[in-house]
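DM from R.C. (forwarded with permission)

"hey, sorry to bug you on a friday — could you get me a structure for this? deadline for the figure draft is monday and I only need the backbone to look sensible"
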Amino acid sequence: MACQQHQKWKSEGIELILEQDNAGENKLFEESAASTDWKLATKIEHMEREIPQHSSPVEIDIATQAQLARAMFNDAKFDSTMHLKLAKECSV
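My reply, with the result:
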């Protein structure tokens, strides 16, 4: 599906530069786009270091916030059902 849309844009003269991380589905798309079936010369930039998911301080901050939330839930003596309900609301 993505290759079909890319082919359509290419035929209309629209050049794409894709910025993506190195996740498995992105690598599969890159291989598919370069295959003999599609022959899409796509410029793909891997942005692994610039995305927050790969940043250690961000990961630590998220874990700390989750621990603080659990501590507050425990201190308020919420049961496990309420823990799950509140956790879902807090993470949105």
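R.C.: lifesaver. The two ends are 30 Å apart (CA to CA).
me: no worries. The mean pLDDT is 78.
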